[in-house]
Specification:
The complex is a heterodimer of chains A (529) and B (84).
Chain A lengths: L38 H6 L8 E6 L19 E2 L19 H10 L16 E6 L8 H8 L8 E4 L1 E2 L12 H13 L7 E5 L20 E7 L17 E4 L11 E4 L5 E5 L2 H18 L5 H11 L13 E2 L5 E2 L10 H10 L6 E9 L3 E3 L4 E8 L11 E13 L5 E6 L5 E5 L12 E8 L9 E9 L7 E13 L15 H28 L1
Parallel strand pairs in A: 1-3, 1-4, 2-3, 4-6, 6-7, 7-8
Antiparallel strand pairs in A: 9-10, 11-12, 13-21, 14-21, 15-20, 16-19, 16-21, 17-18, 17-20
Helix pairs in contact in A: 2-5, 3-4, 5-7, 6-7
Chain B lengths: L3 E10 L4 H10 L3 E4 L6 E5 L12 H9 L3 E9 L3 E2 L1
Antiparallel strand pairs in B: 1-3, 1-4, 2-3
The chains are: A alpha/beta (529), B alpha+beta (84).
């Protein structure tokens, strides 16, 4: 995938384009050249987001902004805070409600109009869904927003969630879950709405698996990296993050932030947080949808896993590892940074993945004490519903639904290891979480790290405490939920790059099919004899 | 923490139909929007009510529940969501 950076020539006259290092990194703001979303390749192939609408669920959009007005989709927009079709941000003297406008510009700011910068999908349409600017959120507003115009809006981008204070455990309520399920099943003519979520800003004090939106299987949660490949200090880690994009740097260089549109026709160089990362992903997904409008919500997740790159992302604490089928992942960055060029190329030839099945792999219901020192280790042996209609052979998402109480919830650590030996950190220490009463009640901890693996075999759950004082805990339930396909998802895909993750995965699937065919032949011969 | 109650209500009608929902809502002083993902469920909102209160608006809830066309009315609790 090597491209000489000097050979790429993009002519954009937008004044901030050269500051948009996350689109095309030539080393601006002391960054690492080549560490970008590789959108230039997608643009050169002709994909710019045409025919795709992205809904920004936020505090409104300045739809009169000259860099957004042309791409604004008024028909798909709504103001759920004021109950009218005009999601214009409410004025405050500190411009607090600039968040949605900044996110919108990252996705759909027009190109070559001499204003601000360029959106990732600069010919896509953007819809404003104003829902964040009110004293309190309600389930009904969230549900209404998430289900707004699912035949007009293709991608929903959310850069918000429960408070990232390191002690909150919260997620979508009943109506919102119902709306999200409806969206993935019926949105976009049955191909499924695509929900992109910012993974959270709680830093190392928080864990995004405690955020039920980011950890949902129905959302693609996106973390961020800075312009030298490190994690941002506000980034949270968790096993449900699928991939990463970019946000602002640690250095005080004012040009290391995300350049985008701002309120009242202005531009900014200082958009930041994982808020800035999610819309970049929404833009990349818009490019992929233009390349292939038939992609389902699950296809988009498969494409993300297969085309995201390690690039030069690195972290001192969380190292890159390979799962049981050789896919490289990181607890912070998921499967790596999105690569728009690779994604559109693969999307173009993509054949929809086989039907998805759900299997309860097993359940531990007897209360088990978690010791103050050492670990509680539990195992579950599963055949992944083999022999039944809902057999899951090739994993997508895995959920560990856990009910547990502890004298200090924040000191609890939970790890789960798959039969193929992949260890997922389901919960890491949250030093500020001093809850001793609520614990986790049937909380669905999710991991994407076992993607593509064979679910059959023994799963191991380890629970322990990390902290200064000894703690006690009681695990009341662990239910293993397996989600994935029966047939090989990549065996019919077209391989163009023989060094790609797709090529590797397809080769494995072919070898397994061959082994199984040989096995069947041998058994047949043995029976005859 | 004490809960907070908002001016939003989840309302289920016995007979699904947007026209009927509009009429019911108007009669009780509410605005209305159909929830597209569920049959018979509507979002009623009342601009005359405080956006956040510590106490339930029992008067409005009872008023809605007394209407024979309404199967269920639930005042929505408020919670925190933060920009990232």
């Amino acid at each position: 995938g090597y491209r000489d950076i000097n050979e790429i020539d993009i002519n954009m006259n937008d004044p901030l384009f050269t500051k948009q290092w996350y689109l095309f990194n030539t080393g601006q703001a002391d960054g690492t050249p080549g560490l970008d979303l590789n959108v230039a390749e997608a643009w050169e192939l002709g994909y710019t987001g045409k025919g795709v609408t992205i809904g920004i669920m936020d505090d409104g959009i300045d739809y009169l902004h000259p860099d957004l007005a042309y791409n604004y989709n008024a028909d798909a927009s709504y103001d759920f805070s004021s109950n009218d079709p005009y999601p214009y941000p409410r004025y405050t003297d500190d411009w607090f409600n600039s968040h949605g406008t900044r996110c919108a510009g990252e996705v759909s700011a027009a190109a070559s109009n001499n204003i601000c910068g360029v959106g990732v999908a600069y010919n896509s349409k953007v819809a404003g869904i104003r829902m964040l600017d009110q004293p309190f959120m309600t389930d009904i507003i969230e549900a209404s927003s998430i289900s707004h115009m699912p035949q007009l809006i293709d991608i929903y981008s959310a850069s918000w969630g429960p408070t990232d204070n390191g002690k909150t455990v919260d997620g979508p309520r009943e109506l919102t879950l119902q709306a999200m399920a409806d969206g993935v099943n019926k949105g976009r003519g049955g191909k499924g709405s695509i929900y992109v979520w910012a993974s959270g800003d709680g830093g190392s004090y928080d864990d995004c698996n405690c955020d039920g939106y980011a950890s949902s299987m129905w959302t693609i949660s996106i973390n961020s990296a800075i312009n030298d490949g490190r994690t941002a200090l506000y980034d949270e880690s968790c096993s449900s993050t699928l991939a990463s994009t970019f946000s602002n740097g640690r250095k005080r260089n004012p040009e290391a932030g995300v350049a985008t549109t701002d309120l009242y026709g202005n531009c900014t160089l200082r958009h930041s947080g994982t808020s800035a990362a999610a819309p970049e992903a929404a833009g990349v997904f818009a490019l992929a949808l233009e390349a292939n409008l038939d992609l389902t919500w699950r296809d988009m997740q498969h494409l993300t896993v297969l085309t995201s790159k390690r690039n030069q992302l690195h972290d001192e604490v969380h190292q890159w590892r390979r799962n049981g089928v050789g896919l490289e992942f990181n607890h912070l960055f998921g499967y790596g940074v999105l690569d728009a060029g690779a994604m559109v190329k693969m999307a173009k030839d993509w054949k929809t993945v086989p039907e998805r099945f759900h299997c309860v792999g097993g359940s531990v219901q007897n209360p088990e004490k978690i010791p103050p020192t050492g670990k509680l280790v539990l195992t579950l042996k599963t055949n992944a519903c083999e022999g039944k209609e809902n057999f899951v052979r090739y994993l997508e998402h895995v959920q560990a639904v856990i009910t547990v109480n502890a004298t200090r919830r924040g000191d609890l650590n939970i790890n789960m290891t798959s039969p193929m030996g992949t260890k997922s950190i389901l919960l890491s220490r949250r030093p500020r979480d001093d809850d001793s009463k609520v614990g986790f009640d049937k909380w669905p901890f999710m991991t994407t790290h076992t993607w593509g693996e064979d679910a059959r075999g023994t799963w191991t759950l380890e629970l322990g405490f990390v902290g200064s004082a000894p703690q006690k805990g009681l695990l009341k339930e662990w239910t293993l939920m397996l989600h994935g396909t029966q047939s090989a998802p990549y065996i019919d895909q077209v391989v163009r790059d023989y060094q790609s993750k797709l090529a590797m995965s397809k080769k494995q699937e072919l070898e397994e099919e061959l082994d199984e065919a040989v096995e069947r032949s041998l058994q047949s011969i043995l029976r005859k004899n | 923490e004490r809960p907070v109650f908002t001016n939003h209500f989840l309302v289920e009608l016995h007979k699904d139909g947007e026209e009927e929902a509009r009429q019911v809502a108007a009669e009780h002083g509410f605005g209305v929007r159909k929830l597209p993902f569920a049959e018979g469920l509507y979002h009623f909102y009342h601009n005359g009510l405080a956006k956040a209160k510590r106490r339930r608006s029992l008067h409005h809830k009872r008023q809605l529940e007394r209407d024979p066309r309404i199967k269920m009315a639930l005042q929505q609790e408020g919670f925190d969501r933060k920009k990232r």
